[in-house]
Amino acid sequence: MAALPVEVREYCGLDRIDFADVVSVEGGPSRTAESWARTILGDVPNLPEILIWQVAFRGRLDRRRSRDLVAGWQITHRDDHRISLETPSSVLSLRVIVIAVDKRVELITCVRFDTTRGKVIWKAIEPLHGFAVPRMVAKRLASATREDS
Predict the structure, then answer these.
(1) Which segments within the chain are labelled E, that is strand?
(2) What is the spatial distance between Cα 127 and Cα 125, in angstroms, rounded to a whole number?
(3) For the chain, percent helix, then strand, then coil, each to nearest 5?
C-alpha cells in the first residue's frame, strides 16, 4: 500500500488503515461529489452487493432510496467536493470517499480489519476490487460524459 496523503487519511476517519486505494480519473464533466458517488455506485445496492455485505462481511446495506444514502451506504460527510460513506460490519470498517474537483474524480477506499475474518475475506476479494473498481469508475465517467454532451 502506497503512502496516503495526510488529507486522505483524515477523510478516512479510521485510527488505523490496513488497506487503501485511490482511483483517480480525469476528463469527466464537472459535478458535485455526491452526484459522482451516485453515478458510480448507484442509489440503491444491487443483489450481489447486498449478499457480499450480509454473508461475507456480516454487515448490511440499507435498501431504501434516500437523500442520506448512496447505494445503501450512510453519508457521513457531504459538501460539493467530497462525500464520505460508510456502512456497519462486524468484521471490518470500510469507508468510501468520492472527491470531485473540476474534471477529476477520485474514489478512495479505506479499510481497517477489525477481526481475522475481515482480513481473510478482504484479502480474498482484494484482487477483484483492484480489477473492478478502476474499470467501473472509468466506465461510469465515460457514460456521464456522453450523457452530458
Answers:
(1) 19-26, 69-70, 73-78, 82-86, 92-101, 104-113
(2) 6
(3) 40, 30, 30
Q: How far apart are CA 127 and CA 24, in angstroms?
A: 18
Q: Give the model's pLDDT for residue 2.
A: 56
In order of 8, 33, 34, 55, 84, the CA distances from 106 in angstroms are: 11, 9, 12, 28, 12
Quickly tell me which residue has 475481515 as its cell: 118
With a cut of 70, which residues of the chain have pLDDT below it? 1-3, 149
Which residue, chain included where needed, has cell 440499507?
62
CB 61 within 8 A of CB 72: yes
Q: What is the pLDDT of residue 55?
A: 87
d(CA 108, CA 133): 10
Task: Please state the pTM of the whole predicted model.
Answer: 0.90
